[in-house]
From TrEMBL:
SUPFAM superfamilies: BolA-like (SSF82657). GO terms for cellular component: mitochondrial matrix. Pfam families: BolA. Belongs to the BolA/IbaG family. InterPro entries: BolA, BolA-like_sf, Mt_Fe-S_assembly_factor. This is BolA-like protein 3. Gene3D superfamilies: BolA-like.
Amino acid sequence: MFQITRRSAKLFSTNCIALRKYADSSNVATLKGGENILYLSLQKKFPQAKEIKIKDISGGCGAIFEVFISTTEFKGMSMVKQHQLINEVLKDQIKSMHGIRIHTEIPAENNKSN
């Protein structure tokens, strides 16, 4: 979707990523504008999500985000389909971004015997 150039690759450096921690449900009240909008959009679309994390990896300017979602709602879907769903949910916000990284997972089911 987005091509990483030598110039934009610098934004992905360890120093830049370390500037902000993931924004998730534990600190949703402190999210910056862009992170908050992404978080609320994904929370609305994936109400059963065990975990939604948003991180501004652009150094704070809101141009590049990393998104992580863990939900059973992805069960039976290919990774491509999971990412397409997220792209669809965030399509309006993506228009103003330079890039987005998407990570998804299906949480392990707990099969505890009583």
